[in-house]
Specification:
single chain; 452 residues; alpha/beta; UDP-N-acetylmuramoyl-L-alanine:D-glutamate ligase; Protein-Tyrosine Phosphatase, Chain A; 8-stranded mixed sheet; 7-stranded mixed sheet; 18 strands; globular
C-alpha cells in the first residue's frame, strides 16, 4: 500500500515539474516571431554546438515540409539508421516535435532540457519560442547520438532558427503565398527567403514549380555553387496502374512503390524525399532500393489526408492556405468522386483557420471547397495562433449552407450528430483543430484507415 502511495506521489511530482517547465516555455509564445540567427547561435555556442555532432537534412517550403521530413526519416530508419526528426507545429503534445530512435522525447527528458536552456537564458541569453524548441532538438539529438537528423524550417528559411546547420542535402518543397507579413508580399520575395537554406557546395533538391519562384531558387543555387536537382527535370514520381508508383531519378529507377499517404500531392512529396535520399546515397549513406520502398510504404503523418472510420468516414487534413486547399480539393475528388452535386452527398465540412499575419484571405479559401459540401460548420481552432473568430466570419459573410459555432468541441459534436456509415465528414483548415479532433475521435472508437 505504501509503495503504491509513494509511487503515485513521485508520479504526481513529475507531472507538476513537467507542467511547470511547460508553462515557463509557453510564456515565450507571446514574444512573437523574431527572425534572425544571432540568438540561436549564442545559445548553441553555450551548449558547445550540438548541431555539429551529426549529419543533417534541411527541408523548407510553403507546403509539404513535414510530409517530406517524415518520408525521409522513414526511409533512413528502414535503412537501419537512427534518426532525429524535428518538425512543427505539434498537434496535441509538444513532445511530438522531437523524435529520435523511432520514439518521441519523453516528458522527463523534455522537462530537463527546458530547464537546462532556462539556465542559459537566466545568464542573459534571449530566445523566441521556436528558437527555444530548436535548441532543445539540436541538443537532444546530440545526446542521443543520432546517425542523422532531419530538420523542418519553422518560417521561411534564411533567418529561420534551423538555418544554423550545414546539411548533407537541402530540400525546398514548393513556394506559394503564405505568411506574407513575415516573408514578403510577392512569390519572388518568399522564394528568396526559402532559398536562404541553400549552402555553399551542398546539394539541393527542389520541388518548386512556380514560374516566378523557380528562377530565384536557381540563381541562389548558382551563387552558392550548389548542385540542384529539380522535380520533373531530374527526377519524378508517376503512377503505375499495375503496381503502385515508379520513381525515376538521375541514377536510380524504382517501381512497385506503394505510398502510404493519400493524395496526388503526396506523390510529389515522396518524390522529393526519395530524391533527397538518392543524393544521400551519393555521399555514402547505406540506402538500398528496397529500403526506399519500405520507407515510402510505412510512413505516417497524422492529419495530412488521414482517414478515420467509425460511425461515419472522417477525413482529417491540415490544409491552411490556398495551395493546401487546392490539394485538398483534388484529394476529395480522389476519395469521394465528383462532389459537384452536394445535395446527393451526405457530406459535412468542419472548418476553422488562423490568420496570424492578418494577410490570409480565409473567406476565399473556404469558398474554394464550400460547393463540395452539403453542410458546413465553422468554428474557432484551439491553440494560441491567432484564430479567426466566428465574429470575423459573421462580418465577412459565410456560405448559405454554413453555420457558426464558436466552441470547437461543440462544433465537432454537432458535425458528428446523426451521422451514419454512408456519411462523410471533412475536418480541415487548421492543424490545431484537426489534431484535437483526431484525439477525440480515436478515444471515441474511430480507427485509422490505411490507403486502399
Amino acid at each position: 500500500m505504501n509503495k503504491i502511495f509513494f509511487k503515485e506521489k513521485i508520479m504526481q511530482a513529475h507531472m507538476n515539474d513537467y507542467h511547470a517547465a511547460l508553462a515557463y516555455l509557453n510564456t515565450f509564445q507571446f514574444h512573437g516571431f523574431r527572425l534572425g540567427l544571432e540568438r540561436i547561435n549564442d545559445v548553441l555556442e553555450a551548449l558547445d554546438n550540438p548541431q555539429k555532432r551529426y549529419p543533417s537534412v534541411h527541408v523548407a517550403g510553403t507546403n509539404g515540409k513535414g510530409s517530406v521530413c517524415a518520408t525521409i526519416t522513414s526511409i533512413l530508419e528502414a535503412s537501419g539508421l537512427n534518426c532525429g526528426l524535428y518538425t512543427s507545429p505539434h498537434l496535441y503534445s509538444l513532445c511530438e516535435r522531437f523524435r529520435a530512435f523511432g520514439r518521441l522525447i519523453s516528458e522527463p527528458e523534455l522537462e530537463r532540457l527546458i530547464r537546462k536552456i532556462k539556465g542559459l537564458i537566466e545568464d542573459g541569453l534571449e530566445l523566441s519560442y521556436f528558437e527555444y524548441t530548436t535548441a532543445i532538438a539540436m541538443n537532444w539529438f546530440a545526446e542521443m547520438e543520432v546517425d542523422v537528423a532531419i530538420f523542418e524550417t519553422g518560417l521561411g528559411g534564411r533567418l529561420d532558427a534551423t538555418n544554423v546547420i550545414i546539411p548533407q542535402v537541402s530540400v525546398i518543397t514548393n513556394i506559394a503565398l503564405d505568411h506574407q507579413s513575415f516573408l514578403g508580399e510577392t512569390i519572388e520575395l518568399i522564394a528568396g527567403e526559402k532559398a536562404g537554406i541553400i549552402k555553399r557546395n551542398v546539394p539541393v533538391v527542389s520541388g518548386v514549380r512556380h514560374e516566378h519562384a523557380r528562377p530565384v531558387i536557381r540563381q541562389k543555387a548558382r551563387e552558392m555553387c550548389a548542385s540542384m536537382w529539380e522535380l520533373d527535370r531530374d527526377f519524378s514520381m508517376s503512377k503505375n496502374s499495375r503496381d503502385g508508383f515508379e520513381y525515376t531519378g538521375r541514377s536510380l529507377y524504382l517501381d512497385g512503390i506503394n505510398l502510404s499517404m493519400r493524395g496526388r500531392h503526396q506523390a510529389v512529396n515522396s518524390a522529393l524525399a526519395v530524391a533527397a535520399c538518392e543524393r544521400l546515397m551519393e555521399s555514402g549513406f547505406p540506402i538500398s532500393p528496397e529500403c526506399i520502398r519500405t520507407g515510402c510504404g510505412r510512413v505516417t503523418w497524422p492529419c495530412r489526408g488521414e482517414i478515420l472510420r467509425g460511425m461515419c468516414t472522417v477525413l482529417l487534413d491540415g490544409a491552411h492556405n490556398a495551395d493546401g486547399v487546392t490539394a485538398l480539393k483534388r484529394l476529395l475528388q480522389d476519395i469521394t468522386g465528383d462532389l459537384r452535386n452536394p445535395a446527393e452527398e451526405h457530406s459535412c465540412l468542419l472548418w476553422a483557420c488562423s490568420d496570424e499575419g492578418g494577410d490570409k484571405d480565409f473567406t476565399a479559401m473556404l469558398g474554394m471547397i464550400s460547393p463540395h459540401f452539403k453542410e458546413i460548420i465553422i468554428t474557432e481552432p484551439p491553440g494560441p495562433r491567432a484564430p479567426v473568430s466566428t465574429e470575423s466570419w459573421r462580418n465577412k459573410g459565410i456560405p448559405d449552407n454554413a453555420v457558426l459555432e464558436e466552441d470547437w468541441e461543440k462544433a465537432l459534436y454537432r458535425a458528428l450528430s446523426g451521422r451514419g456509415p454512408d456519411d462523410f465528414l471533412c475536418i480541415a483548415g487548421s492543424l490545431y483543430l484537426t489534431g484535437r479532433a483526431r484525439i477525440r475521435l480515436l478515444k471515441a472508437g474511430f480507427c485509422l484507415s490505411r490507403t486502399d
